[in-house]
Amino acid sequence: MTGAAALSEDMTQAMMRRALDLARLGIGQTSPNPMVGAVIVKDGQVVGEGVHTWAGVKHAEILAIEQAGGLARGSSLYLNLEPCTHQGRTPPCADAVIAAGVAKVVAAMEDPNPLVSGKGFAKLREAGVVVELASSFRDEAARLNEPFAHFMRKGLPLVTLKAALTLDGKIAAPEDNQGWITSELARRHVQDVRHAHDAILTGIGTLLADDCLLTDRTGLQRSRPFLRIVMDSQLRTPMHSQMVESARGDLLVATTSAASAERRRALEQRGIEVLVCDGTGGRVSPRLLVEELGRRRCLSLMVEGGSKVNWAMLESGVVDKIFFYYAPKILGGMMSLPVAGGVGRLSRADAIVFRDLTLHSITRNEFAVEAYLEK
Q1: Is 304 a catalytic residue?
Q2: What is the pLDDT of residues 105-141, one digit of tens each?
Q3: How many CB atoms lie within 10 A of CB 370?
Q4: Could you give the CA distance from residue 228 to residue 28 in angstroms, rounded to a whole number?
Q5: Alpha helices by DSSP H, 234-356
Q6: Which segments in the chain show pLDDT lower than 70?
Q7: Entry pTM
Q8: How far apart (Å, rounded) are the C-alpha atoms in residues 224 and 29?
Q9: pLDDT of residue 132
């Protein structure tokens, strides 16, 4: 590699890293859009940057072009995602890039929407703009916008099953469940993960046992309210629970047609949405619930339920990945609740299988396992 080529490669690496770092500033602030960061470079100097947020409306490319002004002509634009070509809340970004006179666009990946993937690059090339794919950043860029890409392919939210458990896979003791399984640092990490999601789900058993709030407590800005969902087939959700009393248009109770009409009216009078999702055995259907979330353009759902809900979600096939936090403890016994209860699989050959496992170090004595369901 010549000196000039090496210098160009170093610039690409540095500017793509900067674009990805900028994109991450949009965590929790872009849904239902993707996170995008843009950097414009002219004569080796950064002359414009942009980060997309839903509230800010303008896309990252437009913000970077506006900051660069006339210096955008003949410049290089670095992005983590292909510029859009469709009219949404704003005009197509590819058109704005061409109009600004940008000479080269370097992006980490194509648009994950199969209906538009590659069209932005094609339009740029037709206009004489040099287009390069920074393929070494593709996996990182895809991971950053994983929920958006999943939604573009499936029309459904990416569903993550989260649990805090002991080394022997237990989430609750049979009697005294005071205190926490994992450390405060692990619980803070969970809040960061929550913030990156559009919705969170638990079961009525967890609500009755813990009187939980299930809120995003990071204090960071969001593009949409954090939707809290309770699976409650008989509408036993207490009117005096923290969840109900704190509801401000951000609580949905999923139930069945067998539930009390009187209880439904009482919840609805408090401004709480009640959604009928009839499944088998008088239970709420996880599949119907997730499909409804997809229709609402909810990109991601985090499940923080008990043993029964966890199994129902896994068995229904709606779970896409797990994020399990392990503490260096063992409860043992046959009465402590496992992470997934229910009937379970009756033979090892029928076990639910996971792939692409990643270990995350949380503290010196704690770790988390992230893995994807094999479907």
Answers
A1: no
A2: 999 999 998 888 999 999 999 999 999 999 999 999 9
A3: 17
A4: 15
A5: 242-245, 261-269, 286-295, 307-316
A6: 1-7
A7: 0.94
A8: 8
A9: 96
